[in-house]
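Subject: sequence -> structure tokens, single chain

Hey, anyone have a minute? Need the predicted structure for the following. Not urgent.
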Amino acid sequence: MNSGHRNRGDSGNSIPPAVDPADQWVLDPATGEFRLDLEAGLRHTAEQPRPAGVRSRTAADRSATGRSADGRPGVAAPAGASALSGGRAARRKGRSTRGRRVLKWTAGSLGLVLVAGCGGAYYVYQHFNQNISSVKVEVGDEAERPQATDALNILVIGTDSRVGLGREYGDEGSAGHADTTLLFHISKDRSNATVLSIPRDLMVPIPECQTGDKKIPGEARAMFNTSLGQDGRDPGCTWKTVEKLTGVRINHFMMVNFEAVKTLSTAVGGVEVCASTDIDDPYSHLKMSAGRHVVQGEEALAFVRTRHAVGLGGDLTRIPLQQQFISSMIRKMKSSDTLTSPTKLWNLADAATKALTVDDGIDDVNKLKDLALDISRVDTKHITFTTVPVIDDPTDKNRLVLKPGDAQQVFSMIAADKSLTDVPEQAASPEPAAPSSSAPAAPQVDAKTVKVTVRNGSGAAGQAGKAATALQSKGYALAVAGNNADPAATTTVSYPAGQEDKAQAVAAALGLPATATQASTKLTAKDGVVITLGKDFTTPAAPAPTEAPKDIQRVQADDTNVCAAKAK
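Reply:
Had a minute. Here:
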């Protein structure tokens, strides 16, 4: 990895190995939830034999008082604390229940950042901060990136790096490519999520990217997985490639390796998977009889790596297995069996953060915690997994290309925050009413009779033509691009006397606020409405599709009936 990569290593804040993590949790009788007291485990380890009839307490065996071994109340770690010192800071009067519940919420959201063959996790306490590795990435000029929205998009990269793994997995010492890549899109209102798998064999343009001090040339056509590792490309290169490919703006990335799925599946006590027929894959070393199985460790890794013995024997049939595994992992992580076990939560978060590499924007455990609390609002039944629509590459049957029409339809839906899940209206957070100044109601006008001239003062070539075309698509047949205007910072819609309603209708058609309209004594009825585009103007996007392609591949995260099929 480049010089921007770092790992905090071990720290004095780590819990001594002699202390059982379960001893550091006390039950809060007011909430029925466990709370962390780092000193409790130390006291429990060092305490002298007790008088007859007085028993030692553990996190799973506290009295109804909810007090620690020496009689003091157990303490929750305060949200936002940069370090822990026995939980003393959390004893302040008026601490929030949000801080007490953060462990449950964080553990539940772990499932949203897992990737088959690898995984990721969010956790809140300082001990886990020492585990996180980060990379400073360069994602290009702001002007070249997709527009920012209130939706959340996290790129999860599973690298097939063999560094340090010996010959056990083949290609000994390989730096690794983007073997498994998922784009997690969490909707603006956090009511649903779409998880888009990007096949490793997809042929795509890879843009020029910066890795540390090295500028790596782009490629007009290359396998997607080479966006990472090839010629020293780092996760920032994969980030740029996905933004260029999908038109979706990415907020953060998380990257993990082979070890993650082994440690995470073990930490939760195994993940249930299903095979519709017997599977014997000599490449992944998976031998599995038909039916349901609980896999962990090496067997879990073999399951998510299997492709030669399932479906059509390629990456497109491995992806549904990975989606099945991730869905099951999400359900397991959100189950009461995991959420009520302090030891499982500890092991899970410790294993996950050790396997995790993130961008430098979220390389602090408190930032990850805040992100986790946000993501955890998504209900499992409203999470849909799908795969980029593709077809065989006409020039190479072992490669893939985007399926015309369908791929762009899916990309447009995600970029426009359209759900692939049927979310009941009550499941979504209510949207606040927008002020009339920012989203004016369009006055009723006969659009085809309104004369509109668009002048470009934005400094970006071609904007007037694009705006005029956008208006024409909405019925303003007389809209035309005029001469360039003097440079302007903001966009204005000027109108002559008596045409205010027309100006407001035109502004609404372009998504401009009502405050953009202004009367002008220099204009006459013959001039009509004149739009002067400023630097703030962005071309209106084409209406996003509301439905996905009919034959799109899907896996619902709450579907327990998905089974791997034998290769044909």
